[in-house]
Amino acid sequence: MAMMIGVGGINYLFQIVIGRTLTIEEYGTVNSLLSLTSIISVPGTILAMIISKQISIALAKGNTSAVKSLARIFIIATCLIGLGLVLIEICLSGWIGRYLHVNETGYVVICCVISGLTITLQSFAGTIQGMQKFFEYGFQSFITAICKIGFSVLLIISGFKVGGPLWGMLIAQVATLCYCMRVLQRAFSGENYIPVDIKQTLWNCSRDLWVIALGQLNISILTNCDLILVKRFFDETDAGIYSAAIIIARLVMYVSTMLIYVLFPKVANQTAQGKDTQKLFLKSLVANLVIIAAGCAGIALLGKWIIQLFLGNAYLQSYDMIKIALVYIVPVSVFTIITNYVSATDKVCFFTVSSTVGTVLVLTAACVFHATIMQMLLIMGFILAMVCMVNIIHILVRK
To answer: I need a surface site. Which of 161, 237, 250, 291 has the fewest CB within 10 A?
Structure first.
């Protein structure tokens, strides 16, 4: 947990560093491209969760000899999926560039390759997590974060500008992939390869696939779509200013969602024991809302000072936009808590359907109502708040 929190801090530092070393317009372009990469890399997150679960089940049953076989199947399948998606994304790179008003198609191509590497990397990370090698699992995220910020700074200084953070991310993914391969090579050294029933394995993976897929896709879209939509419907300066505002506003989300590290294991444990988890959810929700309220108050009072400290005077004009960004970030934070709570229970159908409908409505409303950034975010935040309210009521009243 401590290492993952540290990784989150390094990733936040990455945003501060590139914000200080790039122009406002370049900063907006980089963040919109990184948000796009996060969304199109969702298949990797989904596969990692499935792989981790299947590996854990095999170990729990004492079937350690099958783990190597399962890992091999999953890694090969994930590599093929990643390669296929990269080829499709590269074919669409011209259209994506025009949609985001990115003149250099090469930047989009780099993002496509990063997403493919991320998907492949997640199969290794999911295997490591499923084998309960938690230090190695945390350390691979640490390698990614350190390499990303280190190489990005070097490349920006060398004159790569927007390409610096993108190439830095690509190098970081390659370095982490090499580390994960080494970890699994050592773990499986001496283990015999025992064939497993591929059809049964695929069936086991597919049972919860739609729930996991929709859940992770909704989270990824809702936490990243605002940057992409601002880049799409407004100019580069607006995108850069909003990027700075959302980075500060997300401090509220980062702090509040730390509860997830405590909430998820407790809910999963009580669910497995057949105990009621509603009181635990309510306590966590209240604590989350208190943290959010305190964070919003702190940003309102110290916002200008935080901007000057983190990003410099050039971004002071983003202060007023932080308040607008919070209108959307607050329901996103609550939605994240609800998502992780529901994922740890065995009652996910209602949430999956309602959150998917909500995500579609959020995107549709943003595409229709975007006369100003404030109008777009107010409508998006209102819809997501309603989705959260409906699900909170459903969780508290269900038997």
So the answer is: 237
23 pLDDT higher than 60: yes
C-alpha triplet 180, 47, 384: angle, nearest 5°: 120
Which residues, at least 6 apart from 119, have a Cβ–Cβ distance to it below 8 Å?
41, 43, 44, 47, 78, 81, 82, 85
Contacts of 372 (CB under 8 A, 6+ apart): none
- With beta carbons less than 8 A apart as the criterion, state whether 88 and 110 touch: no
Q: How far are the Cα atoms of 2, 325, 374 from residue 321, in angstroms, in the given order?
A: 32, 6, 8
Decide: pTM greater than 0.90.
Answer: no
Q: Give start and end residues of each alpha helix (H) in the chain.
A: 2-21, 24-40, 42-60, 65-91, 93-99, 105-130, 134-157, 163-187, 198-206, 209-233, 236-256, 259-272, 278-310, 319-343, 349-368, 373-397
190-217 pLDDT, tens digit per residue, is 555 455 555 555 555 565 566 667 777 8
How far apart (Å, rounded) are the C-alpha atoms in residues 289 and 293? 6
Cα 157 from chain centroid? Answer: 28
Nearest CA to 126 among 216, 189, 18? 216
> Coil, helix or strand for 311?
coil
The DSSP letter of residue 312 is: -
